[in-house]
Amino acid sequence: MSWIALVLGVLLAVAVVVCGLLAYRLGQLRRTGTPVLLRELPADVDEGWRHGTVHYSDENLRYFRLSSLRPGPTRTLGRQSIEITRRRRPEGTESEILHGMVILELEPGADDAGRAYELAMAPGADTAFQSWLESRQSNRSQRRRSA
């Protein structure tokens, strides 16, 4: 009977640790990131949206999915590779979860696998994202090295 209590105790300890890690991750992501919804294309009109946060760096946009225990980003998009192909409002049943948001369709190739994405974000977050993209260094401008 004591081995059953030991197994149950270990399972309880593991469950407490996993819940603690999940709570820590959710707290960190909500405190420091910009909330967005992301989906990989092609997708049906109202399917595939995943809640998460994005974190901007000098070179990358890192997307962290809220429902994941993964310690690092779920997706990483290169700043130089991100191009917006179109901007739209939610359509059909999308408006139930994306009410008031702006949806940006990103050109294929923003990540290493060459996938296309859609990002849904609040208008203020869209302005910040657009500013971050526009302030990137041009592909044509490179520092010349003296020989």
UniProtKB/TrEMBL annotation:
InterPro entries: DUF2550 (IPR019675). Pfam families: DUF2550 (PF10739). This is DUF2550 domain-containing protein. It comes from Gordonia hankookensis.
